[in-house]
Every structure is written in C-alpha cells, then in structure tokens.
C-alpha cells in the first residue's frame, strides 16, 4: 500500500528531477568518453582552462590502463596515496591522473544509481493510491508530508554541517559533505549509498583471531569521514525514535509482560533502508530496557565517551575496546557533538559462545533543555567492502535523563544482526532471549556498577586539618587527617586478624622506612575491634626505653576500626556475632608541614586522598583474595 513518506518529492518535483537529468546528460557523455574503449579523462586538465569559450584538453588512457584501473576499482574503490602511486607507476600514469580517474568512476556510478532511483520513484508515484479509498492519490494529499520531510532534511543537514565543522577543526582538514542527503532526499533513511558493499555474509571460509582483528582495524580514511558523520547523525535520529516509541514498533511479549519485542515489519516501514538489508544468514536481536540509576547524568556521559572507563564499567560484557580516531571532541566544556570511531569485542563468560567484534562510530548529543543526552553506536563495517564481520550494530545506545538528587533515568536500545551459527545449542535460548547481549544485561550491569560506585565513591573520604603548637607528644606543624569507611563481605574477626598481623602489614602499608619502628595497639571488645599504630623514630624509642620522657616522642596515630555490619551477620544467618560482614573505617594522620603558620596546599590534600584510596584498594584486594 502506498505510503507518502517514502517519497522524497512528488509530481512538481519530478519536473525538477527531469531537468537535472538533462543537465547531467553532458556529464554522462563525458563519462562515456572517460570510460569507453577510447576513453578520455580530465585527469590532467588545467582548471584555468575550463571555460565555455576554450577547448578542453583530455588525456586518452589506453585500453590496458582502463582495464587495470577497472580491476583495481572492484577491489578498492578508495585507494590511498601509496596505492595510487603504485598503480600509476605500473601503468605509466601520474598519481593525480589515477586519483581523478577513480573520482570520475565513483561519480559515474553514483549518477547511474541516482538515475535508476529516479525512475523507481516515478513508477511508484504513477501507481500511488489513496490509503483510505484505494483510488488514485491526489497530489495535494502529499504536500504536508513533503513539507515535513523538507523541514526535517534541512535540520539534518544543519546538524551534519555543525558536526563536520567541529570535526574539521579537530582533524585539521576541511570535510566535504557527500551530496546524497540533498533537500530532496528522505531523512528517514540511513542509506549512504554503500548498502550493497557489506562484506561476506555467510559461509566464511576462514577465522580471524580476535587480537589480530582488533589490531588490524585501522581508523577511517579521509574519504570515509564525511560518510561516517552523516551515518552518525541519522543513527541518532533512529535511536531517539526507537527509545521513545511504543506500539506498534515495540510489542509486549506473550510470556513476559515486562519484556518487549521489536515488530520487524513496522521497523522496516518506519526505517525503510537503514544501513542496508539484513545480511543473508544473519538473525536480528532487538531489545529495550529502562532503569533509574544512582549516578549523575553528566558522569554517565563522561564514562561512555572515555573508552577505558566504559570498558571498565562494563568489564563483564566488553572484553577489550579501543578508540581508533576521535573525529570531534564536542562543544567546549562537554561532549555535545563528540564523535569517535571505535572497535570493541563483546563477550559472554562461556567458551561455547563466540565473542562479537564491532567496528563502529559513537556519537554523543545533548537534547532538549540540556537535561537529556543520547549516546548512539552504529556499525561501520558496510563502508568497507572487504570487511568480514559476523555481527553488526544497527543504531543502538541509550538516552540519559537527569533526575533529582543525583539520579538518572537510562533507556537502553540494543539492536544487532548476527550470525549465531557458531553458538552452542544449549546457549541459543539464552542468546535469542536477549539476556546475554541484550539491553537488559547492559542496564543491569550499569545499575549494579553505579550502586557499587555510589557506595565506595570518593565523596566518602573526609579530610580535615589541625595546627599543632607546643603540644606534648605531637609534632609541631600542620597535620592532615583523612578517614573513610566501607563495607567488606568478610567477618570482622578475619579482618582484624589480617590488619594486626605484622606479616600482612605490607599488603596495606604503602611504604616502609628503615629508620622507623611501628608502635601498635590492638584490642577487641563485644562491640568491635581496633588496630591503632604510629610510626616512631628508632632513636626516640631507644631514648624512652632508656628511661627518657615519653612526651618528647612525637606520635601521629593512624589505624582501623572494625565493626560488625549487624547482629550475627543478619537475621537470616542465625550465626554468632562477628561472622557476618564488616564495616571498616580507615584513618590516617600525616604531618604535611613542620611550620604551623604555613598554608596548606591543594597538592597535600590530593596526596592524602590518593594515599587513603590506595590503601583501601590494597586492603580489599588482600582480604577478599584471602577470603576466597
């Protein structure tokens, strides 16, 4: 049935297209001359001579040269400088001549495609019917949709221009936009004229090692960057609609009301072409999930745009990831408009499920009044004809909405096409349900990690200063104190035994000095246990042991307070006091300056912060490792 949204224009626009066809006839004649048996090429034309009243000069390529370049074009339509030089040397041509020949060839193919598309639109328009009565559609009925498409196209072109400008500033080169997103083209399509270039779809004859694959993928070429920008902008549009739409695009599953399934027929209707048809033998996996997480929306955006923090946050899913090239860092002060090309490998913790590798672009954009952000990923495999991939991402990612009190609402869409024939049969139900790689797993991991970070974040460290003057038993100067508390899933007795053991002190101590001793006191009572210690100079300690005044020994005690996390470790265990988890407080005192009137530097605060965090991590690592 006819749907007006699939057309870029209507009868009054077809006249314009017809005129454009006539204008292009000259180009086509020249293309025939360029690529025919006795082809001429404008490779060595002098731009100053291209005037209506002056005769154009052409350089005739030999039949052998044309055949060689045609063969090379089939393998690599976008040769780099080295390839052009090698080909030119082999054929006796200048690299510039080879470059222009390939440009002309790509232009000819694009013109042929546009002409065929124009014919299809004319035929479809001539057969258009009214969706209500079934009769011939009147032209006036399409005007509103046409106007809507024009407005949407203008907005998309402005967005592409803005991103291209930022990318040009960052990479230092201007970026010419491809003309296929013209005012007469549909913004509902992600098609960029390369949908037929997707690599081998099935029956792969060889396997590539994961490490080799990740290392072999290079950043985008200059010719690919404008295509990537357009693809990213269109992918962002699709993600937002996928995240915000309800039925009929998303329909509830029969067996589980809280899960949604993508209506693929409706998806194809709303997004007619996307990044091209689904490769033969591939299966679609689409899912959507929402959750409220305890993390500020800007912190989430920063994590997504930092590949190291992102891969650490989702370490159970992302086995390795790298940023190949940053096309844009976004607006000053935030990530609005940030664009980067990435490569990542995704995993399920089982040798029976192959990993999934993706070469994709990540685009971040601020929406509305600034309280909503979107981060979208979309595969780039199809812009490289020779790429081999068993998995590709259609627009996937998340919408992040700011909520009060440091919370955020995250709506995640995961949409991939994958060749799952290598998955073991016992894992196929898990994979097809979306639990393994779907939105639910991403959101559950994010929620768990945000909760963990909120419980052990840097805001839990408390720092204070004290000036010490003429205070017996304490060194004069500025003393910096820092303390933090955290939970350990280990019984208090085990934590106490570990911290008071001199043999394990090196696990939690950050340094040792040969001229210092450690004076330590350990005690236990029914409510908790304590390990208090202070470094003491050997000479001062010997003086005290020889009968000297202990007030002349300067002490700055530090230590640990270990409390049970509840009576008997919780009502469900019924075990004795002290066998559940532990609430551990770590406190340090450091003399940062021996002059009491000195000013405290920010560097000293940062140092003690770093010290206490490092100590906490060492204690966690050692105690949890010992417990396991």
UniProtKB/TrEMBL annotation:
Residues 52-63 have a biased composition (Basic residues). GO terms for molecular function: DNA binding; lipid binding. Keywords: Coiled coil, DNA-binding, Homeobox, Nucleus, Transcription, Transcription regulation. One of its GO terms (biological process) is cell differentiation. Residues 35-64 are annotated as: Disordered. Residues 221-455 form the START domain. It is found in: Nucleus. GO terms for cellular component: nucleus. Belongs to the HD-ZIP homeobox family. Class IV subfamily. This is Homeobox-leucine zipper protein HDG2.
């Amino acid at each position: 049935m006819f749907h007006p949204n699939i057309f870029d224009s209507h009868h009054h626009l077809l006249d314009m297209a017809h005129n454009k066809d006539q204008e292009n006839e000259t180009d086509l004649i020249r293309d025939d001359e360029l690529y025919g048996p006795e082809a001429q090429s404008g490779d060595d034309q002098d731009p100053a001579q291209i005037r209506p009243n002056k005769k154009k000069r052409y350089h005739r390529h030999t039949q052998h040269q044309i055949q060689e370049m045609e063969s090379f074009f089939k393998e690599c339509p976008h040769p780099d400088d080295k390839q052009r030089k090698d080909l030119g040397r082999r054929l006796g041509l200048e690299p510039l001549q080879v470059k222009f020949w390939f440009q002309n060839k790509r232009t000819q193919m694009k013109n042929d495609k546009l002409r065929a598309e124009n014919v299809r639109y004319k035929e479809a328009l001539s057969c258009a019917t009214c969706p209500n009565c079934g009769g011939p559609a009147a032209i006036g009925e399409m005007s509103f949709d046409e106007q809507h498409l024009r407005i949407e196209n203008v907005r998309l072109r402005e967005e592409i221009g803005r991103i291209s400008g930022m990318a040009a500033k960052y990479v230092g080169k201007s970026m010419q936009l491809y003309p296929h997103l013209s005012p007469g083209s549909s913004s509902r399509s992600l098609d960029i004229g390369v949908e037929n270039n997707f690599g081998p779809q099935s029956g792969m004859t060889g396997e590539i090692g994961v490490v080799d694959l990740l290392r072999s993928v290079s950043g985008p070429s200059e010719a690919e960057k404008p295509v990537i920008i357009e693809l990213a902008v269109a992918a962002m549009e699709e993600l937002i609609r996928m995240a915000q739409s309800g039925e009929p695009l998303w329909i509830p599953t029969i067996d589980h009301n809280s899960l949604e399934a993508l209506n693929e027929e409706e998806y194809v209707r709303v997004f007619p072409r996307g990044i091209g048809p689904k490769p033969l033998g591939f299966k679609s996996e689409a899912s959507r999930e929402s959750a409220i997480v305890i993390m500020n929306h800007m912190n989430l955006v920063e994590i997504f745009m930092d590949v190291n923090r992102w891969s650490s946050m989702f370490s159970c899913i992302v086995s390795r990831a790298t940023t190949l090239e940053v096309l844009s860092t976004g607006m000053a002060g935030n990530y609005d408009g940030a664009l980067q090309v990435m490569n990542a490998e995704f995993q399920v913790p089982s040798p029976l499920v192959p990993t999934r590798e993706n070469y994709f672009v990540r685009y971040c954009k601020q929406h509305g009044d600034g309280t909503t952000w979107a981060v979208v990923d979309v595969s780039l495999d199809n812009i490289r004809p020779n790429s081999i991939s068993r998995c590709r991402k259609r627009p996937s990612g998340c919408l992040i909405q700011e909520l009060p009190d440091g919370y955020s609402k995250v709506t995640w869409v995961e949409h991939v096409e994958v060749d799952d024939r290598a998955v073991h049969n016992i894992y196929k139900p898990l994979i097809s349900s979306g639990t393994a790689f779907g939105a639910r797993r991403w959101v559950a991991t994010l929620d768990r990690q945000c909760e963990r970070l909120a419980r052990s974040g840097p805001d839990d460290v408390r720092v204070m200063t004290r000036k010490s003057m003429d205070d017996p038993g304490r060194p004069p100067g500025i003393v910096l104190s820092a303390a933090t508390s955290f939970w350990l899933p280990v019984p208090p007795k085990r934590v106490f035994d570990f911290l008071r053991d001199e043999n394990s002190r090196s696990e939690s101590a950050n340094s040792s000095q040969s001229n210092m001793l450690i004076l330590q006191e350990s005690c236990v009572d029914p409510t908790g246990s304590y390990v208090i210690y202070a470094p003491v100079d050997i000479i001062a300690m010997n003086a005290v042991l020889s009968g000297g005044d202990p007030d002349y020994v300067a002490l700055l005690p530090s230590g640990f307070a270990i409390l049970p996390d509840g009576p008997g470790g919780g009502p469900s265990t019924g075990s004795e006091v002290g066998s559940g988890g532990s609430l551990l407080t770590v406190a340090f005192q450091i003399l940062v300056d021996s002059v009491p009137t000195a000013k405290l530097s920010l560097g000293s605060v940062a140092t003690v912060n770093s010290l206490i965090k490092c100590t906490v991590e060492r204690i966690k690592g050692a105690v949890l490792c010992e417990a396991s």
